[in-house]
Request: fold
Amino acid sequence: MIRKVISLFCLIVVFLAMPSCQKQQTTSVETRSAYYWSTTWELDSAQRAFLADNQVSRIYLRYFDVVIDQQGRVMPNATLRFADDMPQGVEIIPTVFIVNECLTQGVDSLGLLILNRVLQMSETHDVAGVKEIQIDCDWSKRTRDAYFALLRQLRDAAHAKGLRLSATIRLHQLSQEAPPVDHGVLMMYNTGDVRRLERNPILDMDDAAPYMRHIKNYSLTLSTAYPIFAWQLLVRANKLVGIMHGDDDLPVLPGDTILTHEVSLDTVITVRDAISRLRADANREVILFDISKNNIQRIKQQHYEKIYHP
Reply:
């Protein structure tokens, strides 16, 4: 009798332990990824070491922007210059940024033009094995219909060639209808107003929390991108002049202040864990934005390990 009771108790303990084990499995990072958002594709030794040391298997590579030129035409801009070979064993996902104002113009064939240009660039520069294309756009309610029509056109054409289509999802877009794509990447950065100098505009939990409640029921499958970059803001008379992208990017006058914003490791971990509690599958792929030379050199390897390892 005692043996039966002991056996029954052991079965109950194992049964109760199973859900926690399953939860731990679903929150593990299955894919380590990174964005590359420069205008020249060229990796130095530190960047190559980062990819190898962190087993990064996917890079979202910005190919070009879509902008409105001075004549009011929708045109590609800041096209990526390929000055290096692709790393072995790393999947490349061509990514295209569309300025929201472009969607107010006639964009009936823009989806097909984007697809053809991406495929041509990939072939020309020996980017083999492309399986997916990603579109990045900060669309609004005013431009939603035009943007969704563009995505449907692009998605259908991509599917016909055996490609998937994904799109970035900003926090404020979570409460709206999901775009017609196969997958979404939640951008957990640029969460605040850069003009509010007392807050960190890159990532602040107080700014992000009101939007995060929509993650749980969002209709798209999601990956999540986290920031590893820093901003230098030029401040004059307590007002923002602009973001400095280089030492001589903006004229610095006597009395000006350069305010540096970066996101602490603790903040990234806090936000990542909050997302896992709301929707564990959103962290199956963790993406770092972005692996520029400055960001790789600025952050310690231990930090990357903690972000990639929930």
About this structure: The two ends are 43 Å apart (CA to CA). DSSP finds eight helices and 14 strands in the chain. Confidence is low (pLDDT under 50) at residues 1-26.
